[in-house]
Amino acid sequence: MSEFERVLISKEEIDRRTTALAEELNRDYAGKNPLFIGILKGSIFFFSDLLQKLQIEAEMDFMAISSYGAGTTSSGYVRIIKDLDRHIDGRHVVIVEDMVDSGTTLAHLKEVLATREPASIAICALLSKPERRRTPVDIDYLGFEVPDEFVVGYGLDYAEKYRVLPDVRILDRSVYEK
Ligand code: PRP
């Protein structure tokens, strides 16, 4: 029996959508030398594919964060495991994420980065599960809205497995309900 219910988003669909997002970013950030911030680890393939399609001057940096949502604390909290290498004051920054679920992580991360006085902050996410949102978050560049299913692949994991799949798949319930 397969571990996956089905492929939700094929590599070709991801590629087409990423190309369209890169075109938007090329238009919006021409001459601004934006700093793209990849949030490890889930965003790694999206970040890499998206940035290779840019045709403007841009820089990259990475953060690793650990998020504790409403299930483990009352307010939600983001702990920085690896911070940016450089200051971002006066920079146009674009946070690149794989998934916006409850919204807690990005809402808090955006607050943290805003205190560093960048010129602007935008959010670019591959996937969003609107049904799961608890904290509102504006996604400026979105790949796909997805249903409230457990999705893996193209960077997304279940207990660190499945990240290296080339497409986004719905994990079969039997895998995580046993
Ligand atoms: C995922 C995702 C976001 C967060 C979204 O990270 O990359 O950071 O969860 O959830 P939220 O909207 O409910 O806050 P995860 O902790 O799975 O880490 P990973 O990217 O290393 O897999």
Provide the fold topology:
Layout: E1 4-9, H1 11-28, E2 35-40, H2 44-52, E3 59-68, E4 77-82, E5 92-100, H3 104-114, E6 120-128, E7 141-145, E8 151-152, E9 168-171, H4 173-176
Parallel strand pairs: 2-3, 2-5, 5-6, 6-7
Antiparallel strand pairs: 1-9, 3-4, 8-9
Helix pairs in contact: 1-2
The chain binds 1-O-pyrophosphono-5-O-phosphono-alpha-D-ribofuranose.
1-O-pyrophosphono-5-O-phosphono-alpha-D-ribofuranose (PRP) binds at residues 39-42, 67, 69, 97-105, 157.
Notes on the structure:
This protein is of the alpha/beta class and about 180 residues long. The chain has one domain: Rossmann fold (3-Layer(aba) Sandwich), CATH 3.40.50. Helix content is about 25%, strand content about 30%. It is built from four helices and nine strands; from the N terminus they run E-H-E-H-E-E-E-H-E-E-E-E-H. It has a six-stranded mixed β-sheet. Strand 5, helix 3 and strand 6 form a beta-alpha-beta unit. Helix 1 packs across helix 2. The longest helix is centred in the N-terminal third of the chain and has 18 residues. The protein is globular. About 5% of the residues have low confidence. The structure holds 1-O-pyrophosphono-5-O-phosphono-alpha-D-ribofuranose. The site of 1-O-pyrophosphono-5-O-phosphono-alpha-D-ribofuranose has 16 residues, from strand 2, strand 5 and helix 3.
Number of domains: 1
What is the averaged pLDDT score? 94
Q: Helical element count?
A: 4
Instruction: Examine the secondary-structure arrangement and name the CATH architecture.
Output: 3-Layer(aba) Sandwich
| Rg from alpha-carbon coordinates | 16 Å
What kind of sheet is the major sheet? 6 strands, mixed
Looking at CATH, which topology would you report? Answer: Rossmann fold
CATH class: Alpha Beta
Overall geometry comes to globular
Distance N terminus to C terminus? 14 Å
Please indicate the percent range of residues in DSSP E strands (runs of 2 or more): 25-35%
